[in-house]
Amino acid sequence: MKTRATLASLTLLLFGSVGALTAAAQSQDDSKDTTAKQDAKDAGHDTKDAAKKAGSATKKGTKKAANKTAQKTDEASQKVEDKTKPN
Fold it and tell me: Domain segments of the chain: what residues?
């Protein structure tokens, strides 16, 4: 008799657990869609920010190189002018 009651209790516990897990899994599937969508949006924003940062760094580097080139060209032209000046 006690075995039968224990078996019935375990059966109810098992079916209850399966039902709870099924409900939890289904609610997770619903939240995965919104989470995946938000993840995609966040990835897009991160890509945009990275591209802007890379563009700014390229602009800064190009500007720095152009200014340094102009400075060295001026220095070289001064040297040539000094060497070619009649004494």
Answer: 1-75
